[in-house]
Design goal:
- By secondary structure, the chain is an alpha+beta fold.
- A hairpin with a 4-residue loop joins strand 3 and strand 4.
Length: 181
């Protein structure tokens, strides 16, 4: 390949043409860069319409709790993996958590404490509904380490939407700034 390039460049020089020589020099440099180790060729740029390069709006970005907040909830309340999700087409907001220390986490499962979910942006305070035959839509058994527990808040009218930051309050427990997914 290199020999053919040299022969073509030599012919172009004999004819006195400069442009073909420049094009051939550029082609030979590219060929050399691709064949020599240590020299990298430029990576192709994906087209603008590529779906993987789309920018996700800020309100739909999911961020985890800061590391310090995770440590706080683990050390003080004995829980981690706090999450808030809109389920059942947004009619219910599900708050779930994993128990690390059952003694500290017992406040979250206490039947006497009424949980509430507060959305300052929407100006709404949601409660756990109590059904006649089922009771409250929450787990209130004695917590065990390593198990995941949940409670469901009624979101009638769908005022709390995915992307909103909410606060969950159960007795003295308060989880602030959780993002609804």
């Amino acid at each position: 390949m290199k020999m053919a390039l040299l022969v073509t460049m030599n012919r172009a020089l004999r004819k006195g043409s400069v442009l073909p020589v420049l094009a051939l020099v550029a082609c030979s440099l590219l060929a050399t860069a691709q064949t020599q180790p240590g020299l990298e060729s430029a990576k192709p740029v994906p087209p603008a319409g590529n779906s993987s390069s789309r920018v996700v709006p800020y309100r739909y970005r999911t961020t985890q709790l800061p590391q310090r907040a995770q440590q706080y909830y683990a050390l003080v309340w004995g829980v981690d993996s706090l999450s808030v999700k809109a389920v059942e087409s947004g009619e219910i907001i599900r708050f779930s958590y994993r128990v690390l220390d059952p003694n500290r986490a017992s406040v979250l499962n206490d039947k006497k404490k009424d949980p509430s979910l507060i959305d300052p942006r929407g100006g709404v305070k949601l409660v756990v509904p109590s059904l006649e035959k089922v009771g409250q839509l929450r787990q209130s058994s004695t917590p065990e380490a390593g198990k995941v527990y949940w409670m469901a808040f009624s979101n009638k009218g769908r005022l709390v939407k995915p992307g909103h930051r909410v606060n969950v309050v159960i007795g003295n427990f308060r989880a602030e700034g959780l993002i609804v997914q």
